[in-house]
Amino acid sequence: MSRRSLLQQQLDYEFFITIAQVLKEHNNEPKHGGSVIGHKVVHCKGEAAHQRLYENYFSDDPMYGPEFFKRRFRMSRPLFLRIMNAIQNHDNYFVQKRNAANVLGLSCLQKVTAAFRMLTNGVAVDATDEYICIGESTAIESLRNFVKAVVEIFENEYLRSPNQNDTSRLLEIGVGRCFPAEGQALEVNYNINGHAYKMGYYLADGIYPSWATFVKTISQPQGNKNKYFAKAQEAVRKDVERAFGVLQARFAIVRGPARLWDMEALAYIMKSRVIMHNMIIEDEGDVDPEERFDSLEHNVQPSHFATPDLMEFIEIHKNIRDNEVHHQLQEDLVEHLRQHKPDTY
Question: Would you tell me which of 55, 166, 277, 340 could form a disulfide with 162, CB atoms 3.0–4.6 Å apart?
Fold first, then answer.
């Protein structure tokens, strides 16, 4: 190989090294906005999409009436509008604005509808683009802001601790099912089959520990009494499972797409679902807030006794974990059901 060829190779090598260094420095520079070669811009007619959405569901004479609205939004139109108006007044993000080019942005109706479609139907974030004309990133942003606003506005009213009426209603249902418990919050005194008990209990399945505060079903029950009890316990326990089933039916996002959200967003999504579920119950009139119950001597009152000290707390904790009380309570309930509801289950 000639000396000239070796020199040329060295120059070529140094040239390419220099180019690589320049390109590396350029790629490390902060990027600024501007046109992207090969990037296709979709000019979606947002105002037309808003008008179409309004005429289909929100005008005085909509194309899709109340039944269609409730099926697709999981609530009545007045309740939807109440939530939407409250959110628009609460969060400036949902106020329609013009950008620097004086182009009118998305309406509150479009953003809230996109959030509702993802919550109620569990649709992917980019599935809202064709009808509502909202981009994927904006749809995600709308949902995040929507669920956070719902919690901030309505949490105190619709995600509160149970009040007197709530607790009385639950106790009344338990009495009607022959799973009695009555008294004051934190103080429960009742007798079953000749035995006195001082703690309330939860109906639970087999994965829970054998504590005094859990009444579990009987696995592989033997004898008519035990079989009857297992059937009754499992039937009542399903009430809670059905409650979660209702939430899933109304807000399909939790059946899969919710797994893609971060923990903070999931917390707001779950809270907002429960809040809106309670708002729907109130709107549809299934629960009377002034309801009273004849079989209870008085409404349940919250306890105002002093908080127990450490030794009392340890004793209470020990009593809760009492395995013998757990089995005794189960046996007493088996006998109680046999005597009082022999033909129900």
Answer: 166
